[in-house]
Amino acid sequence: MGVFKKNNRWWIDYYVNGERVRKPVSKIKAEAEKVLTKIQSEIIHKRFALPKEKKIKFGNFAEKYLTEHSKISKRSYKTDISLLRRLVGEFAGFYLDEITDYHCEQYKRSRICQKNEIGNKLVSPTTINRELSLLRSILNRAVKWGYLSFNPVKKIEFFKEEPKERILTNGEMKKLLAAARLPLKDIILLALNTGMRQREILDLEWNQVNIEERFISIKKTKSRKLRRVPMNKSMVKLFSRLHSENGTNSLVFPSPRTGKPFVFIHNAWKRLLKEVGIEDMRFHDLRHCFATYGLLKGGDLISLKETLGHSDIGTTSRYTKALLEGQRKLVDGFDIE
User: Fold this and answer.
1) How many CA atoms lie within 13 A of 113 on its CB side?
2) What pLDDT digit, counting tens, does each position of 62-97 carry?
3) Is 95:149 a contact under the CB 8 Å cutoff?
4) pLDDT at 172 over 60
């Protein structure tokens, strides 16, 4: 919803029963905004009521969202399944048009006091933000499919998140790899040497790996673009060994039990970290390690951007902070008066 200017007149833009409405109102922006506010109020008070056959409870629509949208169109389908367990537990009995911003605030207050299933720690603000972001996406989809007139939680306030990046020292890397068992060790090596995302590694197929030309083709990327990741000598050696061991399977890392991609490696990863005494480390931080050490060893931002598959150089440039920290340590160790 909003106002915009066209041909010297201000138009209003809103949804009614899933259908988009755009119409000119006035030459004065403030008047157009007043009209839109009034319409929004009417919608909220259900003067534009949805047909009874369109009313659906959140639990039923969440299942519909998963099967008809997330599974088909989103790379985060498996993550959506996990996040939805909490949302459905909270909102399953609500009709979509009964969920309000106030309910989301209640959810935030309640959830932040709960403990997660792993490690018995309090649920992080980041996790709650991901759950609420999914809720907002589901209700946005409900608007598009005609089950809601508007998204009542479109402007939900999220918890502030502190940037979290854990960079391993050389000693920690060696300790981690020495304790890791196969195939987790090989998966970690690939992440450290290429900066690939966990899902990209677990879903990697042999037809994406060109050992002779020394590159990996990433098909399902976050930016929806094909990208090529170069291999160093260690990776050529790794893939050559893996191909001789299990090259008959289309997957580089097939699950020994199913022959299909691993659903997740979270438990094995956490056990490994506990074994070697490394704290506050996510698997995704291996990608940050690759980026940081790549810059420290003379890599440039443009090459790093293409290798990591970032759509915006601004996303890549955050790694210069880690580079600056390394340079500062170097300078502090060479202080002449």
Assistant:
1) 4
2) 999 999 999 888 878 888 898 999 999 999 999 998
3) no
4) yes
Q: Give yes or no for a contact between 265 and 283, defined as CB atoms under 8 angstroms apart.
A: yes
Running DSSP on this structure, what letter comes out for residue 26?
E
How far apart CA 212 and CA 233 sit, in angstroms, is: 11
Q: Does domain 170-332 bear CATH number 1.10.443.10?
A: yes
Contact (Cβ atoms closer than 8 angstroms) between residue 202 and residue 265: yes
Indicate the residue type of 257: R
Task: Decide: 197 and 222 in contact? Cβ < 8 Å.
Answer: yes
**Could you tell me which residues come within 8 angstroms of residue 52 by beta carbon, excluding any fewer than 6 positions away?**
none
Each residue of 307-337: pLDDT tens digit? 666 556 555 555 555 555 544 544 454 444 4
Task: Report residue 41 CA to chain centroid gap.
Answer: 34
3-state secondary structure of 204: coil
In this structure, are residues 285 and 167 in contact, taking their beta carbons and an 8 Å threshold?
Answer: yes
Q: Which stretches of 120-183 are DSSP H helices?
A: 125-144, 170-179
Report the DSSP pairing between strands 19-26 and 215-218.
Answer: unpaired
The answer to whether 196 and 287 are in contact (CB under 8 A) is yes
Phi, psi of 120 (to 5 degrees): 55, 35
| CA dihedral sign, ordered 169, 170, 172, 177 | positive
pLDDT tens digits, one per residue of 260-297: 888 888 889 999 999 999 887 888 888 888 777 666 66
Helix (H) or strand (E) holding 11: strand 9-16
Q: Are 50 and 17 in contact (CB under 8 A)?
A: yes
pTM of the model: 0.54
∠ CA 260-266-270, nearest 5°, is: 140
Distance CA 164, CA 148 (A): 36
